[in-house]
Amino acid sequence: MIATVSETTNQLEEYIQSERLSPFFLLGDARDILSQISSDTFDVCMTSPPYWGKREYHNGGIGLEKDYRDFINNLALVFAEVKRVLKPTGSFWLNIGDSYADKRLLGIPWRLAIKLIDEQGWTLRNSVVWHKVKGGPDNTEDRLRNVHEDVFHFVKSARGYYYNVDEIRSNPKKTKVVNGSVVSATGVSGVRYRRQIELSTSLSEAEKRDGLKALQQLLNAVSQGEIADFRMIIRGQQRTTHSDSEKVSGRAKELKEKGFYFLKCHPNGSKPSDVWDILPEDTQHRKDHFAPYPEDLCKIPILATCPPNGIVLDPFCGTGTTMLVSGKFGRKSVGIDLAEEYITAAEERWRHYYERLG
Hints:
Blueprint: E1 2-4, H1 8-17, E2 24-27, H2 30-34, E3 42-47, H3 68-85, E4 86-96, E5 100-101, E6 104-105, H4 108-120, E7 123-132, E8 148-155, E9 176-178, E10 181-183, H5 191-199, H6 205-223, E11 229-234, H7 250-258, E12 260-265, E13 275-278, H8 296-305, E14 311-314, H9 321-328, E15 332-337, H10 340-357
Parallel strand pairs: 1-2, 2-15, 3-4, 3-14, 7-13, 14-15
Antiparallel strand pairs: 4-8, 5-6, 7-8, 9-10, 11-12
Helix pairs in contact: 3-4, 5-6, 8-9, 9-10
């Protein structure tokens, strides 16, 4: 369904209260439309705004400014409204590419990110590198090929925002039993650690006893499926992680006081890293929109930071990738775009997906 600016408030409220899962689209300028929407409406904003100075977008709009600084300022005005319409528990995921001018890489993503942090009070939780696997050809002969873009995760408040890490964990490897001994997913049986404890010249006898007891407890936890894997750091055997200073590292302090500590792996698998290997513009059957924004880029943000009954916003929705992924995961979504032809294409994508479900 496409609504215009003047129809925004009432129809959006009706959509939010309804049982309808299909996306709700708003036609017009993102900042103008957002200014009419009530505060604290959305759970997540996931968006990929136009590049600066790379394409001529339908109906003009952001991305066509003569100066990249005007581009950054215009985006910031939109994202100030995004912050207002997000719930206090909300998240804002921003995928943004960089641009060159006069052979200078402009650093647009980080210029914008720092502006949002310093001037609007956003908290940046992650800076993700999207590695565009099999990225497009690059014929320049005096620099490296560009195959990454930035994805920033902002929140309104540093604490209390919604985040379900278990929704995005990978499937863990399984514990096994070898010759009667429990062996973790990556082959930890405890034999080497026991030997290191027993032969240690850095541990006291009491610390050795405590270390052996704690090691057995961890092996029991592995066998019962309470943890998937672990590593044991022993004073004088393994170097501490992160820092040797007890002032800045709780693990270093624990190593000094106890003689050992453990790194435990979650039984439900590991969480994703901040480097995502994702193909750009997969087979999405889009006819008239050439941005490389793929469906897989939306999955982690929506699963991790939008509750099951939540609502996702995309103020630069294009042909509706964010909306499509939101619907696949059972979330409502609202998309805004300046070009009616893009919204029509987005609705068509959703309709084809729904028809395939039968």
